[in-house]
């Protein structure tokens, strides 16, 4: 499996760290217990296309949002997490 | 009084040669890490002093004195040159890194075994952050081979791993002739 | 059908033509008291104990593929009770006791072999941690012996004790730990459940779960609708998909775990050896193959195959621990889908829908749990209250943050276990 880092280009899976679903980008308001539970634990976990957070740990260190098909390991899109957050705001 | 003796990171370990690959230590005069703030006009004194702009991601440039190497998101290393007073996050890391040069005709074969990068397709002055074995590393392609930087604490591991692979490549080469 | 030495001899001499299927292939009925979704090890043992312990025999097990085609036929077969935390400790202890009586219980050779399991340690701190774990295991009534380096050397002389990064200081020996024959466990439970009247319906995919006014009423399947008073979801690996049919979201992320088998070799490895620091474990099957594996690939996946870097990592760890393994050729490798919960421990609980229960989140430790999981799930579904050895394994522990069972102490996050 290879990911194309928007900064460094096409790189081997070994250079990347996987954090989890891109849900981690949507932090709940502090103190909202139910929302925090959903944020930390509950996942759609689809058997198909997912969006998840990776870091180009051994490379440029950028956090990435990766859209991929988890049943085929096909990588559909890789973007910088900071751009995704900016777009969302 | 204890007499402290300054040693280079790879002192006593290098140079090393096996088959058509050679490994030697590089001792930069100075290594300065530079992380610019958002306002790029703040970098003017650097450009004046070194005569070049900051390199694009994955690149290094020769400066009037020394060179500037891209080393990650919004991060650069200035090698060998003095960095002028600058409004940026600047840290002296001269003693924090071990730096070696891997050369010879077999250098690419050695890298192919120990680094996940497609090293054969790198061109001179290109830079990548990647792995040597399991060690995070900065890898610079030169005209004659590769320069590799790892954290100083990994110096012995770096030499051990690269020289082991050099031996293996040499042995493979001897078999095929 | 029972088995006897006489029958084996007779069939062996007459071309094995007299064997008959050992469980029926029934058409699904219109209604059951209980429908279990998933005909893996856990689903089959649930059905068996519903019939055996609770006298509920109007039960169907619905299996999308065929019996034994999922993770129960695709694992590294280790059976142990060496857990540390209250909750896991008593559960796996119960499970190991069931394993030890399983062959006579089912009249089926599941090839359970208590050959002993050794967890290696490589530092003083790790020795302390294992000493403490060993004491916990003894307190639970299981067995644990702390071995020093010479003690490990006497048992496992073929390891490299001097490797630079992780020199072997000793090991925690769990003599009753061992292995069992993975698919035989599924077949044994299937036959026993069928004999007690449970319908095992293979090639029957559940497409939807019917819920009416907050209560489960049945399932829609590829072979038509089936009404049920209670439904159990026992589909680890696909828990999120099946739960979603009832509108439920579960605290699970699916990950891939790889395993490997070498060519058949003469008996050499007499124990299960676990090298935690290198993420490597090893045993030898009765056929002679070295069965070994490592850690997760560490990304969500349903692909049932992993990537090459983790293969390389496992091989490197194997070479570090046991250099002689380099002479063996790897015959095959595979990947399985793991239901990863945030704390690394499983869930056997009610859901927010009346009459709908779930047994899920087995992470990478489901095989050894097969007997106790079925025992506790059957208890929960029959009595509508948790069995005492699984009462901590609720959904609610994540919501409240109380009673998390983070055995590895790595934090409550899916990819850390």
TrEMBL record, chain A:
This is Sarcosine oxidase subunit delta. It comes from Litoreibacter roseus. GO terms for biological process: tetrahydrofolate metabolic process. It comes from the Bacteria. Pfam families: SoxD. InterPro entries: SoxD, SoxD_sf. GO terms for molecular function: sarcosine oxidase activity. The gene is soxD_1.
UniProtKB/TrEMBL annotation, chain B:
This is Uncharacterized protein. InterPro entries: TrmE/GcvT-like. It comes from the Bacteria. Gene3D superfamilies: Probable tRNA modification gtpase trme, domain 1 (3.30.1360.120).
TrEMBL record, chain C:
It comes from the Bacteria. Its EC number is 1.5.3.24. Its main location: cytoplasm. It catalyses: sarcosine + O2 + H2O = formaldehyde + glycine + H2O2; sarcosine + (6S)-5,6,7,8-tetrahydrofolate + O2 = (6R)-5,10-methylene-5,6,7,8-tetrahydrofolate + glycine + H2O2. Gene3D superfamilies: D-Amino Acid Oxidase, subunit A, domain 2 (3.30.9.10), FAD/NAD(P)-binding domain (3.50.50.60). It is found in: Cytoplasm. Keywords: Cytoplasm, FAD, Flavoprotein, FMN, Nucleotide-binding, Oxidoreductase. One of its GO terms (biological process) is tetrahydrofolate metabolic process. Residues 34-78 form the Rhodanese domain. Its cofactor is FMN; FAD. It holds the Pfam family DAO. One of its GO terms (molecular function) is sarcosine oxidase activity. Belongs to the SoxB family. NCBIfam families: soxB. This is Sarcosine oxidase subunit beta. It comes from Litoreibacter roseus.
């Amino acid at each position: 499996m290879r990911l194309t880092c928007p900064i460094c280009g096409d790189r081997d899976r070994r250079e990347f760290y996987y954090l989890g679903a891109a849900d981690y980008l949507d932090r709940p308001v502090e103190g909202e217990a139910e929302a925090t539970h959903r944020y930390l634990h509950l996942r759609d976990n689809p058997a198909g296309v997912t969006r998840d957070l990776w870091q180009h740990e051994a490379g440029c260190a950028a956090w990435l949002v990766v859209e991929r098909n988890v049943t085929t390991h096909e990588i559909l899109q890789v973007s910088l997490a900071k751009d995704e957050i900016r777009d969302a705001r | 009084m204890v007499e402290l003796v300054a040693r280079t990171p790879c002192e006593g370990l290098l140079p090393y040669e096996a088959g058509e690959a050679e490994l030697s230590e590089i001792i930069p005069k100075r290594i300065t890490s530079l992380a610019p703030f958002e306002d790029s006009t703040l970098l003017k004194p650097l450009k004046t002093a070194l005569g070049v702009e900051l390199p694009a991601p994955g690149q290094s440039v020769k400066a009037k004195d020394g060179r500037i190497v891209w080393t990650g998101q919004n991060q650069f290393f200035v090698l060998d040159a003095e960095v002028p007073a600058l409004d940026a996050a600047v840290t002296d890391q001269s003693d924090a890194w071990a730096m070696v040069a891997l050369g010879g005709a077999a250098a690419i074969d050695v890298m192919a075994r120990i680094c996940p990068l497609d090293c054969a397709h790198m061109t001179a002055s290109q830079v990548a952050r990647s792995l040597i074995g399991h060690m995070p590393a900065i890898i610079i392609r030169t005209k004659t081979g590769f320069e590799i930087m790892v954290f100083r604490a990994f110096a012995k591991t770096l030499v051990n791993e690269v020289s082991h692979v050099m031996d293996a490549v040499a042995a493979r080469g001897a078999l095929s002739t | 059908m029972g088995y006897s030495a006489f029958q084996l001899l007779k069939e062996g001499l007459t071309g094995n033509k007299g064997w008959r299927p050992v469980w029926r292939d029934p058409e699904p009925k219109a209604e059951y008291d209980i429908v279990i979704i998933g005909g893996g090890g856990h689903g089959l043992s649930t059905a068996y104990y519903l019939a055996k312990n609770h006298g509920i025999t109007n039960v169907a097990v619905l299996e999308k593929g065929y019996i034994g085609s999922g993770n129960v036929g695709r694992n590294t077969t280790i059976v142990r009770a060496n857990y540390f935390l209250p909750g896991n400790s008593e559960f796996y202890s119960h499970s190991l006791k069931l394993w030890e009586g399983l062959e006579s219980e089912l009249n089926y050779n599941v090839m359970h072999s208590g050959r002993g399991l050794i967890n290696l340690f490589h530092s003083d701190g790790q020795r302390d941690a294992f000493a403490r774990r060993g004491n916990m295991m003894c307190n639970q009534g299981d067995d644990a012996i702390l071995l020093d380096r010479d003690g490990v050397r006497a048992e496992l002389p073929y390891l490299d004790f001097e490797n630079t990064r992780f020199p072997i200081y000793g090991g925690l020996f769990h003599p009753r730990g061992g292995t069992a024959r993975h698919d035989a466990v599924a077949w044994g439970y299937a036959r026993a459940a069928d004999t007690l009247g449970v319908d095992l319906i293979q090639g029957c995919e559940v497409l939807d779960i019917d819920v009416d006014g907050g209560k489960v009423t049945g399932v829609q399947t590829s072979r038509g609708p089936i009404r049920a008073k209670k439904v159990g979801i026992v589909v680890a690996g696909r828990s999120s998909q099946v739960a979603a049919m009832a509108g439920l979201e579960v605290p699970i992320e699916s990950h891939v775990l790889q395993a490997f088998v070498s060519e058949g070799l003469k008996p050499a490895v007499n124990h299960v050896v676990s090298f935690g620091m290198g993420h490597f474990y090893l045993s030898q099957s009765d056929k002679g193959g070295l069965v070994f594996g490592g850690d997760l690939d560490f990304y969500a996946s349903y692909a049932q195959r992993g990537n090459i870097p983790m293969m390389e990592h496992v091989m490197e760890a194997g070479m570090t621990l046991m250099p002689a393994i380099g002479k063996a050729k790897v015959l095959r490798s595979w990947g399985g889908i793991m239901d990863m919960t945030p704390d690394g421990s499983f869930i056997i609980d009610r859901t927010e829908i009346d009459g709908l229960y779930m047994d899920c989140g087995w992470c990478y430790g489901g095989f050894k749990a097969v007997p106790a999981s079925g025992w506790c799930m059957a208890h929960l579904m029959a009595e509508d209250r948790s069995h005492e050895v699984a009462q901590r394994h609720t959904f609610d522990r994540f919501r409240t943050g109380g009673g998390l069972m983070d055995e590895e102490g790595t934090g409550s996050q899916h990819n850390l276990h």
